[in-house]
Amino acid sequence: MRSLIRWLHDDLPPVPLAGRLDGPGAAIVVAAAALYLVYHHQARPAAMAALVSPAALGGTGTYVAWYLATAVLFLGAPIALLRALGEPLGEYGLGPGRARLGAAVAGGLAAFMIPVAVVAAHVQPFASQYPLAPAAAGSWPVFLRYEVAYALYFVGWEAFWRSFLLFGLYRRIGVASVWVSALPFALAHLQKPEAEGFGSIAAAVALGYLALRARSFWWGALLHAAVAVSMDLAASLGRLR
């Protein structure tokens, strides 16, 4: 355990603004809260139904619109804000970072988490909740189009939590940002099954350290998407035609 803790905290990025909550830092925290509220009220399926017919794309239209809107809101908007604030984008994990390390750690976590997700997909309440768009399990073409959009959702999701918020806080409070950002991340899972909610706490810590050590949010995004798509596939196999 000590070796793991030492490895997690070894060779982390510098903390250039340690102990300072400057104007851009405060703006990032406020903007993160505002963006999440906009996402919750304006980007989810009920709101998307006013723009996209629920029958579109084989009955997955509002969900696909939700996922694409999330990618724009949680990736595009934060990058625009960081530019406006004069923040150094190179310190927000937006590139591949340490690709070899990121791929190795993400691959190791996937080897553990994907089998767990596949088993969970056959257990209530997961089996009745995934895929989030029930119509996605209607046919292979619909399922594949839906899962591409679903994967993009996790790119936006991870960019928000493990690039914008995590690195924005890290530049000011250091590694404590991993633990601070785990709280709102867990609260964002209140509508999920209880077991998934508790699991999100561990996931937030693991993905946070992965982003910091690899200097990139992308490896966590790939891992998160792979686990989620695997769960959807396992839950849908008996219904796909």
Number of helices: 11
Tell me the span between the first and last alpha carbons: 47 Å
Total beta-strand segments:
0
Major pleated sheet: none
Radius of gyration: 18 Å
The succession of helices and strands, N to C, reads HHHHHHHHHHH
- In one word, what is the shape? globular
Strand content: under 5%
The overall average pLDDT, rounded, is: 94
State the share of residues found in helices, binned by percent: over 70%
Structural class, by secondary structure, is: mainly alpha
Total domain count: 1
| Contiguous uncertain segments of 5+ residues | none
Q: Could you describe the 3D structure shown?
A:
The chain is built from eleven helices and no strands. It is an all-alpha fold. It has one domain. Helix 2 runs antiparallel to helix 5, helix 2 runs antiparallel to helix 8 and helix 9 packs antiparallel against helix 10. The termini are far apart.
Please describe the topology of this protein:
Elements: H1 2-8, H2 23-42, H3 45-48, H4 56-59, H5 61-85, H6 99-120, H7 126-129, H8 140-173, H9 176-187, H10 194-214, H11 218-236
Helix pairs in contact: 2-5, 2-8, 5-8, 6-10, 6-11, 8-9, 8-10, 8-11, 9-10
